[in-house]
Amino acid sequence: MIQVRLNGKDREIESDLTVMDLLESLELNPHMVVVELNREILSRDVIGDVRVEEGDQLEVVHFVGGG
Amino acid sequence: MVRYARHLVLPEVGVVGQERLKAARVLVVGAGGLGSPVALYLAAAGVGTLGLVDFDEVDATNLQRQILHGTSDVGRPKLDSARDRLSDINPHVELVLHAVRLTSDNALEIIENYDMVVDGTDNFPTRYLVNDACVLLGKPNIYGSVFRWEGQVSVFAVHGGPCYRCLFREPPAPGLVPDCAEGGVLGVLPGVVGSLQALETIKLILGKGESLAGRLLIFDALDLSWREMALSRNPECPICGDEPTQTGLIDYEDFCGLPSGDAPGAAETAMAPDEISEIDPSELAERLATADPPFLLDVREPYEWEIANLAQGGAVLIPLGEVQDRLDEIPTDREVVVYCRSGQRSATAVRTLLASGLPRVHNLRGGVLAWADDIDPSLTKY
């Protein structure tokens, strides 16, 4: 297990997960969210390759379009 | 000036600030859930010139949150009720009414007359359009959006700061993110978010305080909690980056994967593209009465099913987001008719099913709403 900061809260998650794995474990569809990893927005085509490391800071933002 | 007495005693406003507000020109795009509190507060605050863009008419379903409009306004153009309400709140504000849909053809021409833009739109193509036009013209974009119980606020496209596309680089998959008509929104939520947009607008005009530029504020109304996310300008942003690849406006429906010429946001009136087969409610009713009825697939969310469904016709619910993973629940030896609320999400599902190899898939034209109009008036419209 590794410690990360997810949406401003400390979380313990399994080690060796990609960002895509993490989204799946959170039941989030990668086409409906944007992920910021250590203050950098990840493009959708790399989230299956990028691994979540100890101490990473992640922010997951939903597409919200209503007005 | 008497009406601004509580402003004038504020050290951050005073006479100088109030004169700045009077000289300011602000465009509010959308006179709906967000545009209502934004326009009401900006007018009350004495913003000198307030532009409003909206082409819609007041509908009874608007009244739960769009506080510019009242019950007696149902059926009137939103700009008419907005004008009545705003000129009563503050007759000294010059209102400029743009009774058009904001498009790539008119956005630059309209926005260039203003100092800043408040984004109160209800769909992704127009949000990208507002953003890009603001970046190109160097006007701040005071962003707000709402869905169900969640709200977002930020200030984009101020000098050196990030823009909407630095955060949302790629649009959401078409049809996957429901709008407020489909997913619902708590009426108070746009009041909270729109009030913050008005606040940020006033701060920008006054040049006081810390603006939300470079920060995205995310509001969870159910938990009553706020989350703040730091945003940076993306040097590779196609519109505001160091070497922008896009120097003009584009076709934003196309960019968002929607058929061009589609009515953005107006899911009720959106037409599915020609290439997929459509079936009218009356035709479907006839087919359901035969010995070989089509398989009826509902791709809405479970809570929508609770409001109204076609279970009597044998409908089965598989929400759009799960269709790809639950293809094995759809018979391959029968014709399939897919429906949603208005026919937009189901068009996406039809394409998914066709791509998976199902040969005979049709979209129910106009969805549950059309079914309620044409076949079963006892069905609740929402």
Structure description:
The complex is a heterodimer of chains A (67) and B (382). Chain A has one helix at 19-25, and strands at 2-6, 9-13, 33-37, 40-41, 57-62. The longest helix of chain A has 7 residues, at 19-25. The mean pLDDT of chain A is 93. Chain A has a single domain (2-61), classed as Ubiquitin-like (UB roll) (Roll), CATH 3.10.20. Chain A is mostly beta strands. Helices cover 10% and strands 34% of the residues of chain A. Chain A has a five-stranded mixed sheet, with no helix packed on it. Chain A has one helix and five strands. In chain A, a hairpin with a 2-residue loop joins strand 1 and strand 2. The termini of chain A are far apart. With 382 residues, chain B is an alpha/beta fold. Helix content of chain B is 33%, strand content 16%. Chain B has an eight-stranded mixed sheet, with helices on both faces. In chain B, strands 9-13-12-10-11 form a five-stranded parallel sheet.
Give a quick summary of the entry.
The complex is a heterodimer of chains A (67) and B (382). With 67 residues, chain A is mainly beta.
Summarize this structure as a short list of keywords or feature phrases.
heterodimer, A: 67 residues, Ubiquitin-like (UB roll), five-stranded mixed β-sheet, 1 helix, B: 382 residues, alpha/beta, five-stranded parallel β-sheet, 15 helices, 13 strands
